[in-house]
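Attaching the record inline, Q. Sequence:
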Amino acid sequence: MLKTAVGWHVELEFQEDTHRTRAAALVRLPDGSEVRAHGYASRHPSDSNQPRVGEEIAGARALNELAMKLLTKAHGEIDEDSGRTSRPLV
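Structure, as predicted:
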């Protein structure tokens, strides 16, 4: 039987102007640490104004950076616990 040990909630916040969207991602981990990341999207002047698309792109980029930071954090914790240098996780 699978048992859920923890749950994470990722927060995404967006700031937009007519041509740019900025996303900020945050996850609070059970150990009390926080990991933050950012993503950006720019609309070409000839593209139609679709704020949702800008949010999706900026959000995806922020989540991608957040994932890489989490992998780096986990990699460092593996090394610290084992006392040796492990292979990269990516």
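The CA atoms of residues 10 and 37 lie 11 Å apart. The chain is about 35% helix and 30% strand.

More tomorrow.
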